[in-house]
Queue: 2 jobs
Job 1
Amino acid sequence: MTGTFEPTIVGFLCNWCSYAGADKAGAAGMPYPPNLRTIRVMCTGRIDAQFVLKAFAEGADGVLILGCHPGDCHYKEQNYRALGRHRLLLRVLEQHGIERQRCRFDFVSAAEAAEFAAVVGEMTADIRQLGPVNLRAVGADAQ
Amino acid sequence: MATKPKLSVYWAASCGGCEIAVANLHERLLDVEAAFDFVFCPCLLDTKKQDVEAMADGSIAVTLFNGAIRTEENLEMARLLRRKSQVLIAFGACAAQGGIPGLSNVSTAADHLRTIYLQGPTLDNPEGTIPRRQTVVDEGVLALPGLLDQVSPLADVVEVDYTIPGCPPESHQIWAVVDAVIRGVALPPPGSVLGAGASTVCDECPRTRGDKRIDQLRRTWEIDPDPDRCLLEQGVVCVGLATRGGCGALCPQVQAPCIGCYGPPEGVTDQGGKMVSALGSMIDIEPLKGLPEAEIVARIDAIFDAIPDYAGCFYKFGLPGSSLKAAVAARVGVSAQDDQ
Ligand code: FES
């Protein structure tokens, strides 16, 4: 599978820091894998765990959540809340057999273009190794 | 005598509690009997599958179908009763969302057979006998319905007109629906949830709610909670805020947390996801401020370590009805077909 499988990664990027960081990476011509499908949100606080579950249910191989560093969130402390949700969601996903590397949360500031490119590169490489998510088909026969 | 509309109640993968909820209509059962010709209910009546097969398609006015779809037999009966019924209602948590049997979707059917029949510590099964579709004995061939790879809600296998949630549905809610049908009140658009509220259990809960700042989660046996304060605020994982109301918040009123049997409320697609979002946001972050990022993560993780089983906590009645429906195949490492 390695080498041929190209994962689809859904990225939720906070408008104020991480999206700006991604923009900066693009403007600077920094290469990063084209596997990320970016969704801009105003803040990581907007990201309901249901969004992440829906992304996996609809075929995402990974979900990346990027927000402001602690203390820098433009909506006070919502990135702490988002982190709390992510830590709990990871456990739920793991019980579903969805590996931790497939759902990553990181802090990327507007200045950290290189960090952004590095996170996307690392995550893409990790998921290439893991292969696609094998959701089971409804109504399949067991015997 | 004018012919009465026909009513049927069927159980698929269920415990019988839904039938008890129907029987708990008590003397109102006589009103049901007066209004309907009760034609099929394996728990209470003698009519058999072939009697249903002999009926004309669409001749049953209403079928209350409880239980999840676990076996080929469940699937066959779901299709048969869909064909014979004008209105098919997913009745109870199992038919609506997969219910407790749906928790088995964290594993596969093949794994269950292995665990239950081959690996249990109290087993004595030297020949490794497991249930199979066909077994030849001296007298002939014995047949059992096969297991499906995973448990599904009724609506995943046939078209469902309405859902009455609950484990089991509250009898007064059942009566409200039956009574509306008897009186000929126009039913809401197909796909609607009947016999329940639109909002959450919290909206029916008399406990007072304040600021939610959790620094420690507690299992029910670890705390004697304040009877007047929100259980969640006391660290007890109560899933009322991710659960549809209609029960009257019975559990929180007797010091027990809501465990989610009425399924997700209006506007929520994934009950567990909703609960994760809510609980994840309630950690008391004041002591975390200014700590290094890795330390913040470690402190949050330490609080969630208290939850022993995430699916059992957040999807107790609805794993098959959730976004992911089941654990992915890779986790269990076998395609279910491998085994037999
Ligand atoms: S504004 Fe960036 S995480 Fe809140």
Job 2
Amino acid sequence: MHVIESGNVAAATGVKLARVQVIAAYPITPQTPLTEKLSEFVEGGELPAEYIPVESEHSAMAVCIAASTAGARAFTATSANGLLYMNEQLHWAAGSRLPLVMCVANRGVGAPWTVWNDHQDTISQRDLGWIQLYCADHQQIHDTVLKAFKLAETVSIPVMVCYDGYLLSHTYMPFELPEQEEVDAFLPPFAPTHFLNPEAPRNFNSVTLPDVRPDLHGNTAPGYMEIRKTLQGDLRRSLTEIEAIDEAFGEIFGRSGTPFLEPYCCDDADYVVLCMGSLSYQLHDVIDTLRDEGVKIGVMGLKVYRPFPDAAIREALCGRKRVIVFEKALSYGNQGALYADVKSALYSAETRPAVNNYILGLGGREIKTQHLYDALTESINNEAAIGDEPQWIGLKL
Amino acid sequence: MDKDKKTTILNLTDEEMVNPGNRACSGCGLGIVYRTALKALGKDTVLAVPPSCLTVLQGLYPVAATKLPCVNVTFASTAAAATGVRAAMRATGRDHLNVVAFAGDGGTGDIGIQALSGACERGEDIIYICYDNEAYMNTGVQRSGTTPKGVMTTTTPIKGKIQHKKDVPSIIAAHGISYVATASAAYPLDLYDKVKKAVSMKGGTRYIHVHTPCPSGWGFAPRYSVKIGKLGVVTGLFDLYEIVNGEFSLTGESAKSVGKERTPVTEYFKTQRRFSGLTQEIIDEMQGIIDDKWAAYTA
Ligand SMILES: Cc1ncc(C[n+]2csc(CCOP(=O)(O)OP(=O)(O)O)c2C)c(N)n1
Ligand code: SF4
Ligand SMILES: [Mg+2]
């Protein structure tokens, strides 16, 4: 079915079609309409799930962690300070290997307060052991929610579905809504092997010691470090799963083929812009203009930030003249986090392109087409400072 | 409680939900509380436990002292985690199970009070048991909200705690939940019957606050845990009561003490090193508070 709805509703309908069993959420702009929609689905009887109106985000994630440990498919959503208020719980969810899905309507982080979009909230949470997926439009939000549950339950790792606050969460766009039977064929019910069950009692997340330790039968059980190494290994392996799930999704829904990077005009491009979220689509106009001027340039939207698809990035960027990384976040005191990751992925490439870094759109600062055009021409004409200092776009003082 | 048939040592179930041998200090009151409460809860129970002495008692991976399924959760989140377990039980058709949060006083009345208050306000179908050893014991005896006035802890090392004990069960009762009770490790059968009653009142939030002597943190020899727990009750300092659907009544030893002369509270203070810095002024103040409280009970 073809519908025109907001990004938050695109997410909510994905959650509903995924037959989520437990939802816990706390309102924060710009995520709020998503939780309102889910309450409506549950109260109206359209979605037979438990909706827990918790008193904080810390508790929202606690409910999800416990519900998932007890064997239910669980979901929450948040933004900015809500996400950061969960921080301890986010580490806990990943360490517990729970297949939670959480939507984050990306928003800048206080202080000072801002309710507008940038990516600082989720980028600051990149080292949790969660998978982070980014969406460029409403169709991607909807599809990514469905794929996220499949992925999370395949690799037993929680997944964050990130989309731009306001720019996507509150705007209306057309997208394709699949039938419930199609979704059921793609996403079978959650069937964990271990869960809270008096018939097979287990003590989950108990205290570990620095070293390995024998169990009561004399078999060596892993210590903290082995458990953590397994998480890292499984996260890296989930890159393969992301590709497989993208393919499986395509077979049922007809949309697939760009699991990691979504290129526009990149086949012959000497210059490639790399960015995340809706900005990659916004850049199409500027790319068209520069192409008209004869510049061989394209843009790639990165859809998977953690685990970092370094091999795919290397393959896509090796041999280009220049890569220009546009970011709505910063690793304060250093550079854009994505910029640093891209450079590290390119280090082992045979021919390394030059890489430039631009910071833009923080706290919802309007990203003007002219500013994008100016930055790209500056970079292409080699006028940008080639050092590691990021350049700022759209500053007015 | 008085109307109901009381459990005695002769008809108490032999079934144990705690494996023999655990990591608590010898003489630990929590050992009694945990064993007794789990006996009353029985096999069809799921636990949620935050960091505390109980985490350690329950064993270090891959060994577990409990025979019940348990999820260990972050310090502030116990009541919310129990909420999540209950939601999953409803969602997966296993709603008959008891969902029980088991936490220390710090995890309950300090860092965990927001999640607990939220759960009580929503009327979550959970049993919350707080064992109150009156300090953060797991991290080495720091003051908590329920540490009594004048007590020496590692964060009140010279003058003792300046403030009075926070009355957590009254705060919880103010939420209007169906069942609030207090109990003591020194009266395990009273505790057992209260946990049983909480189980029988399935549907709403049920809270039990258990006074739990701690030899290591309070400064007394392990063999005196029960004796000191009893002194806490017979001096009228810590009362055993129930609030069933808003109806308050004293139970057990406390019910028997109404109208009788009570042991002076100094007898309790004398038994523990943590009270060694009490001035006569604080002792008199505490005795005065107890006397006023009991005058109201008699009235
Ligand atoms: C967020 C957070 N802050 C601090 C701690 C450290 N911590 C672990 S247990 C504990 C004290 C527990 O006190 P209480 O709940 O009274 O239980 P007890 O140890 O006395 O049995 C503290 C402060 C923690 N684990 N998590
Ligand atoms: S410190 Fe106290 S409460 Fe903790 S295990 Fe030892 S005796 Fe028990
Ligand atoms: Mg304590």
